[in-house]
Structure formats: C-alpha cells, structure tokens
C-alpha cells in the first residue's frame, strides 16, 4: 500500500522532523484517509509499505531515518531532506 502524507502535528518545539508526533495521510489509490502517531507510521514503513509527500506536481518518497528516536524524512533528488516540516499542521 502507498500513502501520501498531507499534514503533520508537532509534540514539542522546535518544529522539526524529530518533533513531529502525528501524520495525517490518504491512500493514493482510494479515498481512505487517516492519521497515525510517529512510531506507528515508522513501523508501517519498515514493513515494505511506501509513503510520499507531494512536491509541486511530483511525489517524493518518505523514508525512515535511523536517528534516536527514529523519524521520517523525505527523499528528494536522491538526498534526505526535511520537506515534512513544511506540510500544514492539523
């Protein structure tokens, strides 16, 4: 399954990929939407599922970063970057 992450929620300041606590998403091939906490989405992605964010007219892959604790970042142009912090909050 593949999802597009559309919004984020922060658990604390500063607003970085490591302080994102929840992600709102939609399935790419259906109208299903939902939200999950960070650990749930990390676990889900580690089971060979895929997540993306929209960057202009294209989709950019989201990957798990082995930080402590693990977090998510987007993978744009082959580089791990932090576009998730630019998503709207919910």
Secondary structure blueprint with pairings:
Elements: E1 2-10, E2 20-27, E3 33-37, H1 38-45, E4 50-55, E5 58-65, E6 71-76, E7 79-81
Parallel strand pairs: 1-4
Antiparallel strand pairs: 1-2, 2-3, 4-5, 5-6, 6-7
Structural account:
The protein is mainly beta. The chain has one domain. The chain has one helix spanning 38-45, and strands at 2-10, 20-27, 33-37, 50-55, 58-65, 71-76, 79-81. The protein has a seven-stranded mixed beta sheet with strand order 3-2-1-4-5-6-7, with helices on one face. The longest helix has 8 residues, at 38-45. The model has no long low-confidence stretch (mean pLDDT 91).
Condensed summary:
The chain is mainly beta. The protein has one helix at 38-45, and strands at 2-10, 20-27, 33-37, 50-55, 58-65, 71-76, 79-81. Strand 5 and strand 6 (71-76) form a beta hairpin.
Key features of this structure:
single chain; 90 residues; mainly beta; 7-stranded mixed beta sheet; 9% helix; 50% strand
